[in-house]
Amino acid sequence: MTLYSVIFYVVAAVIVGATASAITRRNPIHAVVYLVVSFLGSGVLFFLLGAPFLAALQIIIYAGAIMVLFLFVVMMFRIEKIEPLGYPFRQWGPALLCGVLFFSVLTLVAFRDPGGRAALEMAMVSPGDFGRFVFERYWLAIEMISLLLFLGLLAAIHLGKVKRETRNPEED
User: Fold this and answer.
1) Could you give the CA distance from residue 30 to residue 54 in angstroms, rounded to a whole number?
2) Is residue 74 within a helix (H) or strand (E), and if so which, with residue range?
3) Does domain 1-79 have CATH number 1.20.120.1200?
4) What pTM was computed for the model?
């Protein structure tokens, strides 16, 4: 086993653990921090796989910008009441069905070619070519996504203001 393999498996375990922790946390701020760790690990995996530009994009855009936006939105809501632990039993059935389907497809894919004989083609693209490709072909989708993120931030600010205005001033 090479050093890259050891680093890959350690980072993959950190990503799985951080993502599982993000899903199971009741405190939304802790969930966002665990998700940042997961995104940072994904950036490390991109770097190990020979895609440093995608690693930089993953860290700058997801772990940096979007998760900071989520953190600000979560902190604006001031969630004080923590719901009781556990989920309703009506949600367990679909969750178990999705889990069984996922693991059966994962097992099928993993054991279909256990030796890893299927070779992947290497593609090298410079960041300039990638930027031209994205902004020449998909500029409208990028603008729509940025508009949706902006509208989500405005909605969160509006909901936060409405909640503060309806509160009793003696509570502060």
Assistant:
1) 26
2) helix 67-77
3) yes
4) 0.57
